[in-house]
Structures are given as C-alpha cells and as structure tokens.
Design brief:
Elements: H1 7-39, H2 47-85, H3 90-137, H4 154-165, E1 173-183, E2 187-196, E3 200-209, E4 214-223, H5 238-254, H6 259-271, E5 289-292, E6 296-298, E7 302-303, E8 326-327, H7 329-338
Antiparallel strand pairs: 1-2, 2-3, 3-4, 5-6, 7-8
Keywords: Coiled coil, Nucleus, Transcription, Transcription regulation
GO molecular function, one term: transcription coactivator activity
Family: Belongs to the Mediator complex subunit 27 family.
Length: 341
C-alpha cells in the first residue's frame, strides 16, 4: 500500500526537482563551453588555465547533480508508485490546466497593454535624464586628495583570528596560503590548503566580495593526507569522493552568511573531520556502514554544518543540531527526512 505524503513534503520534492533540472541545464551549458574550447583552432597561452577552469566547472556541476540525485530518490520512488496505481482525477486536471491557460492569456494581454505605457514613460524619463546630464557636465568640482587607508586583508586577518581564538587546542589542524591573498577591485582572492592530521587535506580557491560582504568558493578539492593528485582528478579513495559530493551541499548552505561568518563556518566544518576514521555515527553508533554498491562500506563521513533555517508559525526557531555532529550518509538522510530539513 502506498504511503501518503504531506503537502509540505510534496512542495519540497517539487522544489528539489526544479533545482535539479536547473543543474542539468547548467551542465549542458558548461559542456557546451568546454567542447567549444577544446575544438577551438586558436589555443592561446592561457589555454591550459582555461581548460582547467572549464573542466572544474563541469566537475562541480556533476557533483551538484549527484548530490541532488541522492535527495530525490524517495520522491522519484513515490512518483513511480503513484504512476503505477494511476488513480488520477483527469477531469479535474484538465479543468485546472484550462483555467491556468485562460489566466495566462489574461496576464499576457495586461502586460501587452502596460508595455505601451511603459515605453511612453521611458521616453519621457530618457529625455529629462539627457537634459540633466548636459547641465551637470558643465559643472567642475574642485578635487582634493583624500587619505585612503590601505585595504584590510580579509582572509589573512580572519584566518589568523580563527586559528588563535576558535581552533581547538588539542587538535592538529593547519591552514597555509598556497597563493598569498591578493587585493582586487572588489575585495580579495587567495588559495589555501587545510590539513587535518591523519584525516584529510582540502585545497580551496576563495574570493571575498567587499560590497556584498560575501564569500565565494571558486574551486575546492578534498583528498587523503598522503594523496597526490591534480585539482580536476577524483580521489582514489571512495570516502573522499563522497566527502567532495557532500561539500557541494555544505558550501551552498554556509555561503549564505556574511563573509566572516561563512569563513568561520567552513573552518569549523573542516576541523570537525579530525576524527573522520575513528568517531562512531551519532545515530547508529557504528564506525562502518554499507553505503551503496558503488561506495561499499564507509565510515561516518558526514559532519553537520551551520545553516540558516526557517522560522515556524509560532515564531520559535526550528530545532537544529550542533554543527560537527557525526553521521553515515544514510543515517543523515534519514535524520533529515524525519526532521523535514
């Protein structure tokens, strides 16, 4: 017998499907540009850099799609069951479709009418703007030299602060600059290497945007401590292949915060992996669990991360678990489903 699903679950499934379809579209676009680059007759001196950039973009999109596919399994299985039962009210579906089509036609007519008014208003605004520009262009203001303080190096400052104030003292955890922080017109960029002893190494290419006070991860790579490989290559170890997939979701949630908090959340997340191979799962209390035919048996490779959660109707915040909680992937998905995350 088919299990029923709440409207909120169905809405979340639809949203996840829309997001996955958007990712598929982005993959097609990335592949198009990558193919165009490879087939180009003119390969300039920066071809290797562009090739690496495009290949990483394709890899990043495929990682996102794989992660989203994990979350869609339950929804697609439910859809298959519903389709097989074929208990749809086709008359109601047809009626609703005709109603939506009629409403769309009305909206189109209204937009067409408003477009003519907008063009008339736009012409008037343009004429007035051109007149004002001519008047202002004749005014010359006296310019005085200003004392401009040298820009604050965002990554250098806040990584040092995190290491001195937030890093657990009993954990061997290092952060080094593979490429020193470089000031840009909009903020700064750098490449850092994070190492959690006996656990993992992560290389990240980061950018700080001053005006929006936001952080961007352009490239990332997570691998074993003694593993030697290029940025675009997959790790030879299944556990790190899985962690790379998980990082796509984690960064998406952590980067919605302001830049300093985003950076701190990322460093908190990476330091929580210091016991990757020794900590038991919070839910099943085991070290190894069968993940899938592809990944076989894995340790608990999920560490929960900071995320912004919605507020429920009575204005009390949704219960959240502390960042760094240890899970197997299957246990984590079950936890999310039980808490409608």
């Amino acid at each position: 017998m088919m299990s029923t699903r709440e409207p909120a679950e169905i809405e979340r499934d639809i949203s996840n499907i829309d997001s996955t379809l958007l990712t598929v579209s982005e993959i097609r676009s990335s592949l198009k540009y990558f193919t165009k680059l490879v087939q180009s007759d003119k390969k300039g001196p920066n071809f290797v850099h562009l090739f690496s950039d495009r290949l990483n973009a394709v890899k990043r999109d495929l990682n996102t799609l794989s992660s989203q596919g994990e979350n869609l399994k339950g929804a697609l299985e439910h859809a298959q069951i519903v389709a097989n039962e074929n208990k749809f009210n086709w008359a109601l579906i047809k009626s609703e479709a005709e109603k939506e089509a009629a409403e769309e036609e009305i909206r189109f007519r209204e937009e067409e009418a408003n477009s003519a008014k907008a063009k008339e208003t736009g012409s008037l605004v343009k004429a007035n703007a051109e007149y004002a520009y001519k008047q202002l262009s004749s005014i010359v203001l006296e310019q005085k030299p200003a004392l401009i303080a040298p820009p604050k190096l965002f990554f250098t400052t806040y990584i040092d602060q995190w290491m001195s104030q937030k890093k657990p003292t009993d954990i061997v955890f290092t952060i080094t600059f593979e490429e020193e922080e470089r000031v840009t017109f909009t903020g700064s960029t750098c490449r850092i290497k994070i190492c959690a002893r006996k656990s993992l190494v992560a290389n990240l290419e980061l950018e700080y945007e001053r005006n929006s006070d936001s952080l961007t991860v352009h490239q990332y790579d997570i691998k074993g401590v003694k593993e030697e490989k290029n940025f675009w290559q997959d790790s030879q170890y299944l556990v790190f292949q899985k962690v790379n997939l998980l990082a796509t979701d984690a960064f998406e949630d952590m980067l919605v915060f302001f830049a300093k908090e985003s950076l701190y959340n990322m460093l908190d997340w990476f330091v929580s992996y210091h016991d990757l191979f020794t900590a038991p799962c919070y839910r099943c209390h085991k070290i190894l669990q069968f993940d899938s035919p592809q990944y076989k048996y894995l340790p608990p490779m999920v560490r929960t991360w900071a995320k912004k959660l919605p507020v429920i109707d009575n204005d009390s915040p949704v219960a959240r678990q502390a960042p760094g909680t240890v899970y197997h992937m299957r246990c984590y998905i079950e936890y999310k489903n039980n808490h409608a995350m």
